[in-house]
Amino acid sequence: MSKNENIFVRSLKELKSTRCLALTALLISINIALDLMGLQIKLPPNLRIGFGFLCNAAIGMLFGPAVGMTAGVCTDVLGYFAGNLTMGAYFPGFTLTAVVGGLLWGLWLYPRKLSVGRAIGAKLCVNVICNIGLNTLWLTITGGKAMSVLLALRVPKNLLILPAEVAILYFAMKLVLRMYYALPGTPSEKCVPESNTQ
């Protein structure tokens, strides 16, 4: 098996760890709480940067794509039951978006050392594939608006906030790594295998 295939095996093995389960559950609950409280940075004109994506990115970075995908399902379903019941029927397309997002965070950030290039690549992929592509499709299906109308609004918005999101992501993940490696019993950062692929 190549190193890219081993990334999923390593990530699945993380699920056996109590540390992984506890930190993943904590990050899922923080993500849901951030969404329920509506914490975000508001920028003119009508642009908002939420912080929930940082929890998803941290899970993918620390524990890999398999854990990231599992956390995506849990976050979406639990978030729906925690506060979105009044917003209408549950739609599984958004859960699929959360799964794809967890996969992308894990593929870009696990178990490599964080770099600006990887932060840009991860956030750009999540914005293009999940936010612009999949979520626009689901909004078209559930809302009945033409996809071209929604894309005209969503593409510029996602591209305009991308630099700010990348900066927030990079510095937040640096802090997450520092706190994670400071936990008792955590292997040193030097023990993390580096992938040959960029």
Number of DSSP strand runs = 2
* End-to-end gap: 18 Å
- Strand order in the largest sheet: 1-2
The helix/strand series, from N terminus to C terminus, equals HHEEHHHHH
Low-confidence stretches: none
Residue share in helices? over 70%
The percentage of residues in β strands lies in under 5%
Rg (C-alpha, Å): 17 Å
**Shape estimate:** globular
Walk me through this protein's architecture:
It is a single chain. The protein has 198 residues and is mainly alpha-helical. It has helices at residues 3-14, 18-37, 52-63, 65-84, 92-109, 116-143, 147-182; strands at 40-43, 47-50. A two-stranded antiparallel ribbon has the order 1-2. Strand 1 and strand 2 (47-50) form a beta hairpin. Helix 2 runs antiparallel to helix 3 (52-63) and helix 3 (52-63) packs across helix 5.
